[in-house]
Amino acid sequence: RVVADFLLTWIIFWKVPFTNVDFEAYQHQVHSVAAGVFDYDQLRGPTGPIAYPAGFVWFYLFFHALGCESVHMQVAFSLLYLGTVACVFEIYRLAKAPGWLLMLCILSKRVHSIYTLRVFNDGVAQMLLYLALLLFLHRRNRASAILYSFAVSVKIHPLLCCPAVGLCMALRAGWGGALASIGHMAALQVSVAMPFLFTNPRGYLARAFGGPGDLQHAWSVNWRLLPEQVFQHRAFAPALLAGHALVGVWFAHWRWLPGGFLDRRIWRWAQQRELDSQG
């Protein structure tokens, strides 16, 4: 299946033109950092101010320093995509998922577009996220926590997995181990963002995790089906967040925990299997 996806990705790379949606903005932003600008309020591109954490800056700055053009980035992101698919396949294998789910991964038009045609930072964050989940399944808990934090440092959408990840950590290592992993994650976030926090901490915290403005209806993917007046309503975002939280609580109580929130394992400070020392 990976070989088939490799061939499909190669065909897409050669036949479909590159879509310069955000890459030019990325280049402007990291060029400013390369010139010594570490104030997040001053980092801007053609599409507006920077709206991603520091890990995003260092990743694209690396390729900028190498002089990579869009075609080089497409090759790199095509390989990144195939690595992501390989991680997902292995996770599905360990979970004993049905084989037809793998075909859905291969045939996704949007995923190919995000990686190969647009080189969005979503692809980098997803690769790190799935690799972190795979390491967790292999009981490499500390390494998993660090990679998960790296994923969030590139773009914050891996935080959507945070409730499930935190619950699994608490079940495996107790709350003591889970809090230790959270400490490692926080330390990494601070370390990656250190130059920007020293320069303008308020500007970094205001812009790195979503930016100063609200998402425009025209740029929404999942909710464009709604009328714009509903999407822009002040109650929509809190209602969406509350719905997400309630669904997470329902799954935790009825599906993820055999005994629900009364399961004794979730209330222990330390489990017999602590975080692995070699991870």
Keywords for this entry:
single chain, 279 residues, mainly alpha, two-stranded antiparallel sheet, 13 helices, 2 strands, 64% helix, 1% strand, globular, disordered C terminus
Quick overview of this protein structure:
The protein has 279 residues and is mainly alpha-helical.
List the helices and strands and how they pair.
Layout: H1 2-15, H2 23-34, E1 44-45, E2 48-49, H3 54-65, H4 70-94, H5 100-106, H6 109-117, H7 121-137, H8 141-154, H9 162-192, H10 194-199, H11 201-207, H12 228-231, H13 236-256
Antiparallel strand pairs: 1-2
Helix pairs in contact: 1-4, 2-3, 3-8, 4-5, 4-6, 4-7, 7-8, 8-9
Distance between the termini: 30 Å
Number of strands: 2
Principal-axes shape call: globular
Radius of gyration: 20 Å
**Beta-strand percentage range:** under 5%
Secondary-structure element string: HHEEHHHHHHHHHHH
Strand order of the largest sheet: 1-2
Task: Report mean pLDDT, rounded to a whole number.
Answer: 87
- Class by alpha and beta content: mainly alpha
Number of helices: 13
Low-confidence stretches: 273-279
Main sheet overview = 2 strands, antiparallel
The share of residues in helices is 55-70%
